[in-house]
Amino acid sequence: xxxxxxxxxxxxxxxxxxxxxxxxxxxxxxxxxxxxxxxxxxxxxxxxxxxxxxxxxxxxxxxxxxxxxxxxxxxxxxxxxxxxxxxxxxxxxxxxxxxxxxxxxxxxxxxxxxxxxxxxxxxxxxxxxxxxxxxxxxxxxxxxxxxxxxxxxxxxxxxxxxxxxxxxxxxxxxxxxxxxxxxxxxxxxxxxxxxxxxxxxxxxxxxxxxxxxxxxxxxxxxxxxxxxxxxxxxxxxxxxxxxxxxxxxxxxxxxxxxxxxxxxxxxxxxxxxxxxx
Length: 277
Ligand code: SAM
Fold this sequence. Notes:
Blueprint: H1 3-6, H2 18-25, H3 33-45, H4 54-72, E1 78-82, H5 92-99, E2 104-109, H6 112-122, E3 128-132, H7 138-143, H8 145-150, E4 158-162, H9 174-183, E5 190-196, H10 204-221, H11 229-234, E6 240-241, E7 247-248, E8 269-275
Parallel strand pairs: 1-2, 1-4, 2-3, 4-5
Antiparallel strand pairs: 5-8, 6-8, 7-8
């Protein structure tokens, strides 16, 4: 069978999607030729021997550590994971529920393929649900009846914007989107962000590699922004940043025994967590 026949009709397999390209970077199977071509193009633009999974795996590991921190240290029991992506190993609800069984997760993504795959996987888990919505309309997410039903807005919420804001154009105001989401959750809530970074003149070779990837993402996926440290920190607004702040993903509260591997693009992807006072 062709890919077109195996995919549900609402999925356009001929056009690459961020969720499916990321799935291929992670070594997943829920992607099509158009998605794999984007990854191949990135590989050609990178130094020989570069492993395409490095950043994606760093990002998933950051996500796992951030969720565990929020459950174990901060006492968060409910999560709004926006730009959740295709189900993969160590999904947010699995990580959170391993730390505390009462944890509940709403997965939000604007790509219909995420809904198709997530529904099949999550149908068995009463602590988890999934909706299709666009982060560029944050009020629609906060007011969504499924979200209102699932999340208790009197209790702290863990807002996860992991690997999504760099897919929002400057003119769509990613900082304003984050602020509006944070305004909708109670004090004591947390915001976790991971974001592509242009490390600037301090790491000129990595900055050049970031520019190459930005060009490919822009041409093939519409947007992919490697922003400055200042821009990314500003997305936390007046939240109190949890130590160590906004840092290369592997440096955010590594687990004991974790080895830091400073690969070719180590400084071009950062993450942080902030607390709403
Ligand atoms: N959060 C997961 C992680 O970090 O492993 C997945 C990140 S993946 C790189 C980005 C996800 O954001 C994709 O699944 C994509 O479909 C989703 N996305 C991109 N733009 C979006 C938008 N405007 N609204 C909602 N989701 C969006």
